[in-house]
From TrEMBL:
Source domain of life: Eukaryota
Pfam families noted in UniProt: Baculo_FP_2nd (PF25298)
Gene3D superfamilies in the record: 1.20.5.170, L1 transposable element, RRM domain (3.30.70.1820)
Name this polypeptide is given: FP protein C-terminal domain-containing protein
Coiled-coil zones: 5-32, 65-92
Organism lineage: Eukaryota, Metazoa, Cnidaria, Anthozoa, Hexacorallia
FP protein C-terminal domain residues: 207-258
Keywords in alphabetical order: Coiled coil
Organism from which the protein derives: Porites evermanni
InterPro entries: FP_C (IPR057251), Transposase_22 (IPR004244)
Length: 265
């Protein structure tokens, strides 16, 4: 089970404190370098005793070098700890999002009931839609359903994100998602003239996996693959109907695929 958001926030606050401390330490180290540089210029009296001056400068330089090395080692050690913490927090956030998004579907191409459609109205619309698809899903099976804004809607209806209380309900719906094309707008109470011809149901991907899907689609075009789709928290690539399915769970998987293809090509 992923860590709670509260734990992640505490980790993040601790990380901010570490970064602040490191910033102060780096600033102090810079001051040491500036002081050393200022003291390096000899005075007229020091110039008259050049041998004595050079000896003193050398001793000061060795002392400064030893001090600076210790400071750099300490800062490097702390930076390594901060990096490890950053990676841990990033992984924890990814795990939490992946776990949470497993309960969601994203529905596109469904017209809005009204211009200011409330979440309760959207939830009821989803229930009607699922019923017409042959799915016995009640309002109690839905945690929440709401419209989400999109960057370039071009006049298209806002997508719906529907979150179920059980993953089994979602999986059942996804196994029959193509049935949405058989639903008539009037049957679910949509305004006259509405169309569901472009309605589709997808897995709702986390931001991390959306980025993987975006890059995977670019690879698909570059390599002239025929298929690229998501299945749960996994992105799938396939060259053609006879080739094996390549499963991607992270950007690292995609980078490794590109590396292998570059070697083979």
């Amino acid at each position: 089970m992923p860590e709670s958001i509260a734990n992640l926030k505490r980790e993040n606050n601790d990380l901010k404190s570490k970064v602040s401390t490191l910033t102060e330490e780096i600033s102090r180290l810079k001051d040491l370098f500036q002081q050393q540089s200022s003291s390096a210029a000899p005075s007229a009296k020091e110039k008259s005793h050049s041998l004595e001056f050079l000896s003193k400068e050398y001793d000061d330089f060795l002392l400064f070098k030893t001090t600076a090395n210790k400071e750099l080692q300490r800062l490097s050690s702390q930076l390594s700890q901060v990096k490890a913490r950053v990676d841990a927090i990033a992984n924890a956030i990814d795990e939490f999002q992946e776990y949470s998004f497993q309960y969601n579907v994203k529905i596109v191409g469904v017209p809005e009931v009204c211009s200011d459609e409330a979440a309760s109205t959207t939830s009821k619309l989803c229930v009607k839609l699922f019923k017409e698809m042959g799915e016995n899903i009640s309002i109690q099976d839905i945690d929440t359903a709401h419209r989400v804004p999109q960057r370039n809607n071009a006049g298209n209806p806002k997508p719906i994100v529907c979150r179920f209380v059980r993953r089994l309900v979602k999986e059942s719906l996804m196994s029959h998602r193509k049935e949405i094309s058989n639903v008539t707008p009037a049957a679910v109470g949509l305004p006259e003239g509405s169309s569901l011809s472009s309605a589709r149901i997808y897995d709702h991907l986390s931001p991390r996996m959306q980025a993987v899907l975006f890059q995977a689609k670019r690879v698909k075009e570059e390599l002239h693959y025929q298929y690229c789709w998501s299945k749960g928290p996994v992105i799938c690539l396939r060259k053609d109907s006879t080739s094996r399915i390549i499963k991607l769970k992270s950007m690292a998987d995609l980078d490794e695929l590109k590396r292998k293809l570059a070697i083979e090509g």
